[in-house]
């Protein structure tokens, strides 16, 4: 509920602002240690990314309540935003976007980690689990860039707004596609913030969508094997429907104004 979200936000904001906060039956404050604030910034940013990777990966709708809190905290405490991006880019290089190349002297295991895979006892995680985690993080990012905490002072611009989403999309389309990964993440990204980008960029946005369908989609198709068709077909259907209806629907789970009265 909106009221619960406000409580969570206030608690985090109070902690970062140096006030005393109840946590786990104890009273804590960042004034208790000279490095406490840096530590809390770091752990909080890491926690937001983990929520994308776990929570949002399993429940897509969770992207919006988590993102609106992250966006509001980022606005008041910019350091959290910098660290959020650092954790995000390390765990999901595709959020830069960047496809790390295999360098000489890098072990296979190390390279798999650079690509974002979890490697335990020299065993790489399953592809579908990997894609699910990457999707969760991209969806959280796509939600953050379009959301603002509704109770802020709204004087300045969004600390990391839709222009970053436009840049991400343009950079993705300038890169050679990767089988499975590219189709999955473009779909996730556009499903979450396509509606907001459409409203902001209008004609330019539809030119971008046409470019994806006419030029970029065939390039993804060309490198996709028969076993990887699922994500590609889902993306194709989404593109066709949006272009046909000249509309990108509001994402499922988006926070309506009624939410804040709950």
UniProtKB/TrEMBL annotation:
It is found in: Cytoplasm; Nucleus, Nuclear pore complex. Transmembrane segments: none annotated. The keyword Cytoplasm applies. Keywords: Coiled coil, Cytoplasm, mRNA transport, Nuclear pore complex, Nucleus, Protein transport, Translocation, Transport. Gene3D superfamilies: GLE1-like. GO terms for biological process: poly(A)+ mRNA export from nucleus; protein transport. Signal peptide: none annotated. InterPro entries: GLE1 (IPR012476), GLE1-like_sf (IPR038506). GO terms for cellular component: cytoplasm; nuclear pore cytoplasmic filaments. GO terms for molecular function: inositol hexakisphosphate binding; phospholipid binding; translation initiation factor binding. The keyword ATP-binding does not apply. It comes from the Eukaryota. Its main location: cytoplasm. Belongs to the GLE1 family. Required for the export of mRNAs containing poly(A) tails from the nucleus into the cytoplasm. May be involved in the terminal step of the mRNA transport through the nuclear pore complex (NPC). This is mRNA export factor GLE1.
